[in-house]
Write a structure and sequence with these properties.
With 228 residues, this protein is an alpha/beta fold. It has one domain (5-226): P-loop containing nucleotide triphosphate hydrolases (Rossmann fold, 3-Layer(aba) Sandwich), CATH 3.40.50. Helix content is 36%, strand content 27%. The protein is built from seven helices and ten strands. The protein has helices spanning 51-58, 81-91, 107-118, 122-135, 151-163, 181-198, 209-213; strands spanning 5-17, 24-36, 40-44, 66-71, 74-75, 92-95, 169-173, 201-205, 217-222, 225-226. The strands form two sheets. It has a six-stranded mixed β-sheet with strand order 6-7-8-3-9-10, sandwiched between helices. Strands 2-1-4-5 form a four-stranded antiparallel β-sheet, with helices on one face. Helix 3 packs parallel to helix 5 (151-163). The longest helix has 18 residues, at 181-198. It starts with a strand and ends with a strand. The mean pLDDT is 94. It binds adenosine-5'-diphosphate and magnesium ion. Magnesium ion binds at residues 51-52, 173.
Length: 228
């Protein structure tokens, strides 16, 4: 395995305006992280500790108050918004607790979408999406719409979608938070198999200690920093 830095952040600080507007909430107070290729790390922490806020910042969705994020050693928040969106679509796959699939499109179309946005030719996008859905055990569900799929199946579609453009990293925010034990096991097994097959790194936010324990490293967010 190579030891290439896929995602790194340095001294991330994030403040939000307090409700009354005259103070600041210091949510992240100097977070540092370095993720290598094909590494799977877990981030745990109590509700409200800033896990989702950090994930959004790592994924280029929300600018930190201070500090910087690097994908493959390139600073992302110094990019123009269009360029950042393009880099994000090529490098990062997101999986959220709620799948955010487009209801009027089939599973296949949902998974093809990031590739079509990138400008991949339709047949190539279709081939990749179909391969991924079959790999996720959904070969019989290609033309189903999200409403015709179970919760576990919907989440597997959203994982396939996250992988469409061969990202170097998957950022997953409590991806199994809404699933029963059996579906949770299926999703986790797939994640661990995919890191080998797709050489992808994974950041997994979870509040389940069992799940975190299976990852290569576990970081606990507390009082705005990783507890050491
Ligand atoms: N856009 C926002 N504006 C103000 N406060 C926010 C915003 N987003 C999150 N927060 C606050 O930041 C804290 C951390 O939120 P979050 O990152 O969602 O926590 P976690 O995912 O660990 O449960 C919470 O107190 C939340 O209310
Ligand atoms: Mg959260």
């Amino acid at each position: 395995m190579t030891h290439e830095s896929v995602l790194r952040c340095s001294d991330i600080i994030k403040n939000f305006k307090s409700e009354s507007g005259d103070g600041e909430l210091e949510i992240l107070r100097g977070v540092n992280l370095n993720i290598q290729s094909a590494e799977i790390i877990a981030i745990i922490g109590s509700s409200g500790s800033g896990k989702s806020t950090l994930l959004h910042i790592l994924g280029g969705l929300d600018r930190p108050t201070a500090g910087d994020v690097f994908w493959h050693d390139e600073s992302i928040y110094q990019q123009k918004p269009d360029k950042l969106a393009e880099l994000r679509n090529e490098n990062v796959g997101f999986v959220f607790q709620f799948h955010h699939l487009l209801p009027e499109f089939t599973a296949l179309e949902n998974v093809m979408m990031p590739a079509l946005i990138k400008g991949t030719r339709y047949p190539d996008a279709e081939k990749r999406a179909s391969y991924l859905l079959k790999r996720f055990g959904l070969g019989e569900r290609l033309n189903h719409r999200p409403s015709q799929l179970s919760g576990g199946e919907q989440q597997r579609v959203s994982m396939a979608r996250a992988l469409t453009n061969n990202p170097s990293i998957i950022l997953a925010d409590e991806p199994t938070g809404n699933l029963d034990e059996k579906n949770t096991d299926t999703i986790l097994q797939l994640l661990f198999q995919l890191r080998e097959e797709e050489n992808v790194s994974i950041v997994l936010i979870t509040h389940e200690k069992d799940i975190a324990g299976k990852c290569d490293k576990v970081y606990t967010l507390q009082n705005g920093v990783f507890e050491s």
